[in-house]
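check this one:
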Amino acid sequence: MPGKRIFITGGASGLGKAIACKYAGAGYRVCIGDVHEKRGLTTVAELTALGADAFFIRCDITRLEDLLEVKNQIVSRWQGLDLVVNNAGIAGTAGPIDQVALDDWQQVLDVNLLGVVRGCQTFTPLFKQQGSGYFVNIASAAGLMNAPQMSGYNVSKAGVIALSETLKHELAPFNIGISVVCPAFFKTNLTESMKSTIDGLSQRLGRLMARSAISAADIANDIFTAVDSGSFWVLSHKAERRLWLLKRYLPVVFDVLMKKKIAKLFAAPGPANANTAATPPR
């Protein structure tokens, strides 16, 4: 009997690819949606070489019509869907609130927050019709901790958390489950899409990601376990999980620790005239 079916936005690389590999290994049929066609086709080729039923669809999550086309193709090919992972996102523009343009705010919110909204809007009617389904929304520890100089990204990810908490209760009567994933630093290609008014910030963040003991595969494993058990929160990084609990129950201690962490990350910021180039959104 054919396996269950999963659709992953931004599934061509990084965490999305790790999730695709994890679920393909568990016998799922995998659809990858991404704007990077070459990466997507390469990933699908790797999955099919391992025996998975996998295919790629070019999908820009800022276009509702793209997601609707994905749904139509999946229903035509597989007659339904079991799991949607709203993973695609960008780093946005880092910098002080008075130096980041509103166009940059609109871009990061359109991709990171409204992209998840579009994904949920598109597939909820199908899940209701089926009487079952599951959403995994990729947020970030940034949406819980809210460090300075990253306001656009923080707000976009906090919005994903709020949306997920809302849908947890709204969709439960329809047998639709949801998990929200809040990773901290891990090795990924997110900094490809980062712009910054702070000299050298993307390089510092890249080094933190490279040094992380948590990998994309680790987070994919945690997601698999959470979906299997119906757990809402996926918090793979122990240190950030402790910080989040401190913020909730001992906010004064949290503020002291955050000040120390922030001082290290933003030490000796450069002038607001060195912008890094951004790649197109994932």
